[in-house]
């Protein structure tokens, strides 16, 4: 589904990612872990094409997309939910969702009902401005907007960060439902050991721009977390 080899990327002269390799199989939920500032967001942006790698290759769905534009990646079925709820505050919930249809690979002209099934709260708030929603609801809107396009690979950058526990639970349920549907792969940045071991199939730990540990999530132990993730 997604295969990254020998990736090197950064900002101007400063190289953040070095020799990164990572794999996401069809239907898998893969968790990318690592301390603050190690390059997780940089990796997500490079997968989405917002940062051009200096070295290495990214293949998606059997195609080399290393040089493809972000728009082409979205059209070919990669959905991206950036860190920090990047919704349009002046547009209504419905308008935000409709933008998701434009961006992605879906040929549908209406928002699929499955999105409202996953986020019933949004259906009740279709006419409200995005900026009037709570932080957690905005995060749900941001995820829903990506799902509207029915992507084949969903990239989620710290979707639970700074969100109240009840909404964290709802977002976890959505990720579980996506996994159960087997129609989408998910790569997400998430620090919680509980999440990584309960929902994810596989994990990678990034440290100083390189992958230092990986394995099936059931093998992820408290000790490894202490070694690689404790501050
Ligand atoms: N636009 C930018 N220009 C220059 N350097 C940047 C830019 N964005 C991030 N960096 C640097 O790149 C490094 C990796 O940042 P990145 O945001 O990828 O880390 P992260 O693991 O996602 O961290 P966090 O968990 O805090 O979000 C940091 O040292 C950061 O200061």
What does the model show?
Keywords: Amino-acid transport, ATP-binding, Nucleotide-binding, Transport. GO terms for molecular function: ATP binding; ATP hydrolysis activity; branched-chain amino acid transmembrane transporter activity. This is Urea ABC transporter ATP-binding subunit UrtE. Belongs to the ABC transporter superfamily. It holds the Pfam family ABC_tran. The strands form 2 sheets. A 6-stranded mixed sheet has the order 6-7-8-3-9-10, sandwiched between helices. A 4-stranded antiparallel sheet has the order 2-1-4-5, covered by helices on one side. 41% of the residues are buried. It has a single domain, classed as 3-Layer(aba) Sandwich (Rossmann fold). With 231 residues, it is of the alpha/beta class. The longest helix has 17 residues. The structure holds adenosine-5'-triphosphate (ATP). The site of adenosine-5'-triphosphate has 10 residues, from helix 1.
């Amino acid at each position: 589904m997604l295969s990254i080899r020998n990736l090197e990327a950064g900002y101007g002269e400063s190289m953040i990612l070095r020799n990164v390799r990572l794999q996401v199989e069809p239907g898998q939920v893969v968790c990318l872990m690592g301390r603050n500032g190690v390059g997780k967001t940089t990796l997500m942006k490079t997968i989405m094409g917002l940062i051009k790698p200096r070295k290495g290759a990214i293949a998606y769905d059997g195609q080399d997309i290393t040089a493809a534009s972000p728009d082409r990646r979205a059209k070919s079925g990669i959905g991206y939910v950036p860190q920090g709820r990047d919704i349009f505050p002046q547009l209504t919930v419905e308008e935000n969702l409709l933008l998701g249809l434009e961006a992605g690979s879906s040929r549908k002209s209406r928002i699929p009902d499955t999105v409202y099934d996953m986020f019933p709260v949004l259906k009740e708030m279709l006419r409200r401005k995005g900026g009037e929603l709570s932080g957690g609801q905005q995060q749900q809107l941001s995820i829903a907007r990506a799902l509207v396009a029915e992507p084949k690979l969903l990239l989620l950058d710290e979707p639970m960060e700074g969100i109240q526990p009840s909404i964290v639970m709802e977002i976890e349920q959505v990720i579980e439902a996506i996994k159960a549907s087997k129609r989408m792969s998910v790569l997400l940045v998430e620090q919680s050991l509980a999440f990584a071991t309960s929902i994810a199939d596989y994990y990678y730990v990034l440290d100083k721009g390189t992958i230092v540990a990986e394995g099936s999530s059931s093998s992820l132990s408290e000790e490894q977390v202490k070694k690689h993730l404790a501050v």
